[in-house]
Structures
1.
Amino acid sequence: MSRRNHPLSGESARSCWVPAHCPDPNRRTGGDRRAAMRIGIIGSGHIGGTLTRRLRDLGHEVTVANSRGPESLRDLAAETGAVPGTVEQAARSDDFVVLAVPLKAVPKLPASAFEGRVVVDADNYYPQRDGSVPEIEDRSLTSSRWTAGHLEGARVVKAFNTIQAPHLLEKGRPAGTPDRIALPVAGDDAEAKRLVMEVVDALGFDPVDAGTLDESWRQQPETPVYGTDRDAEGVRRGLAEVRP
């Protein structure tokens, strides 16, 4: 299925934080938002494994990969029905690719495999794990902008980095549920961001437009929205109040 066949839901449009970046809520492209997509997930840890389970539960085709190779993914594949593959195979999935690996692993990825792909960056920068990255440390780059620089040509969108894996697994709720957890989504490519917001909504969370990749520092660790399970209004407020 083409990426163009995934319209933005009305709830997603209402959750937009930065009006200048809000997609047109009347823009419909005629697709079935529940139709199966082909998704790659690189990383089988807490977030990668959880997204594999949740997206398979929604009926999507998932190819999952990690640094240890397909053989190490047999148990996850047997549990979920996902296809174990190589990083290159996961990266070439038709609709989008989730990156859920330690940030220090990003420079080792086969960058050419991601060219033109929607890449959902679920990573966070943790210096104690990833080592020092001067450009992120001095805040000249957000971690997602740094990642996009290593995956030149990819359509990078920041999402799923603010929620704990058990909550991603268990706390999705139907649209309109009071206190539904909201997740910020940041990116430069409007179409790619619409797709990711649609997926966030389908997983049971309110998507909130958090601006561009350069603004994604607002959802990095140690910000008000990180790990706090706020609703949509709370996420908008947290994004607005945080300071560099």
2.
Amino acid sequence: MTAQAGTGRTNQKQRTRTAIVAAARDLTGTGAEVTMPAIARAALVSEATAYRYFPDLPSLISEALAGVWPPPAEALAPVADSADAVERVAFACEFLLRGILARQGSVRAMIAATITRPETVATRPGIRFGLIDHALLPLEGTLGATDPDAFTQLKRDLAVVVSAESLFTLTDLCGLDPDEAVTSAVRTATTLTEAAVRAIG
């Protein structure tokens, strides 16, 4: 095989991979169900070809979503000057849940895949943890210093609420519409944070 042919094949593989990732990214933005067959169809490749480039759906979704979510500091820029942890947590919670609603097809696919294959859980983006940490920065020198265990527990409590799982419980099982679900989750997140702030005093 000539060097030119080898380069051409490499370039073709890169174009195919790029097309698959782009198709996945486009599909995640529609809110529709995200599956490997659907992505393959959108990329104009066979499902078998898609699996040659990505061993499973979580790894493909993870790559497709890379860079889609802004870093925590950028996401929380509107409350950057606020020292009110409650306000910051409320904003972070709503930001995450609105983003999940916009990409819920891919988020649901990721959750489903990692439930059935727990070893793939590391491919989940884990956006919530960075947002929670950044939202709670005003408490690092108070609660974080005086009662680090309580501070860690608050982060764990918020991780349960500020999450796709919480959102889908409220919409799918409790029957709330998306706006009501977001409002309910934000209320719970702020209640938890308010309780922690009161404990400082």
3.
Amino acid sequence: MTRDDLEDDDLKIVVVLADSRSVELGLLLRSTASELGMLLLQAMSESSRNEWAVPNLAAYATSSIHQANRETSRRNADFRGLIGELFADGFSWLISNGLVGPASENSGSGSEWAITTAGKLALVQGSAEHVQATRRLHVDLHPELEQTARVNFERGDYEIAVFAAMKAVEVALRSATGASSSTYGVDLAKGLRPGGPFEIGGDGTSAEIEAYPMLYRGALGAFKNPTSHRVVEFDDPVEAADIVHLADLLLRILDRERRRRGITEGV
């Protein structure tokens, strides 16, 4: 059976997930892989069991169609493939995002899965936004961001992560321009001005040379200064992750200019 073979009444068929949560087949069909994953995660958390094997999850859901909808028993075998496809999509998303992991206690087959710490956090928050945003930082970040911005971000301290990232830019900028310890924030960008002590883009056009000070001034003014003076709430972890990525870029630009000048010492 394919999705095109379903009739309108089929969409109202009740499917039980992980012996705990009942949903209509139509809802499952309209859901994305992440939405399917979260539905399965919620059902697993509400279940009386602590671990599940994916084939068993799919078999239980298929069986529930037969149990709750006797009139569809003739087509029960047809639904098995469709349910298996949906569960494969949802569970693959859960695994790839680290929301479920191999169960520590299982029947010995090695195919059972349990909810991870990250999965429990996603359940508390009602979404996997934090986990997905954290994955955006699973790249080779600048060394100055590894133990500060990344660690705080993974703990969910987005404000501290952003502050730490932009502070690293500030420290690197002060070192590169030779500014005094009493120079902070946007004022540090003055050292990048055309003809300044650390002019960037000397081989480019005048517009490019003038743009770099504005880039750093804007970043520090928008993201470092506010977190220095007041509490800034980041409701969107993806936004916070992108700010950390911006800091990473700014640090790498300074490193590139150091190399161009033949400066080898660290920040």
4.
Amino acid sequence: MAYEINQALPRSFGRLRSSKSNSSPLASHVRGVLAAFLPRYGLLISFLVLWQVSSTRGWVNPAVFPPLNVILSALWTNLASGALLDDIAISLQRSGTAFAFAVTVGIPLGLFMGQFRLVEQALDPILQLFRQTSALALYPVFILLLGLGETSKIFVIFWATLFPVLLSTIGGVKEVDKKLIEMARTYGAGPLTVFRRVILPASVPAIFVGLRLSATTALLLLIAAEMIGANKGIGFQVMNAQYNFQIPLMFAAILLLAFLGLAANALLVLLQRRLCRWSQPST
């Protein structure tokens, strides 16, 4: 009997040890995920939890700050019914058109100014003057010149999004290592080859910084542009819901704009990683 117990105990201990060894990789994986997730998103999660709890417990006025579940319910209801879909399409069309024009004008002009110092010195003062002038302050001027239609709304967004792309492109060209340019010229590369093989690739990371700033600015200016003389768009829905005291819908439209901004930034980051694999740190 004692011999059988002594033989059974090592087998039971072996099963316990093997079960611990099987669970340890899963536990270490969970700990690794939490260690990477919490430092980045822990504060955001705490803020959202505090908002939900404070609103449901009555610590803040729920009529002014509705609970997050009410806001998400209003967002889902209006998306499912199609009430916000037309507004999303119109807002994306406005901001996307202005952003495309800003990229079309800003990147070539920035590449040109960055290579020719005399051109930059001649244009920089007036560009700095325009850059320091708020696009919202100029919006009444654009309305007087272009009317209350789509043109003025697109142009004010274009005005605000142009300068981040332009200045980032100029800075990226000016920061290209001169030794690389001299080496390319030493090996017989002409001006066009130097630009195409050296200057342009080295400027792409800085250009994407400007693109990300411009994409964010486009969505920010979109709200102001749609608050004046518009009857469609997410910005119009924000103001219309505020006027009608539909506070959950107002916050739902604001949350939708935040999601669109995050999506645009993530798309540009993904595109930058695809185009600038050589600039990514090796792991």
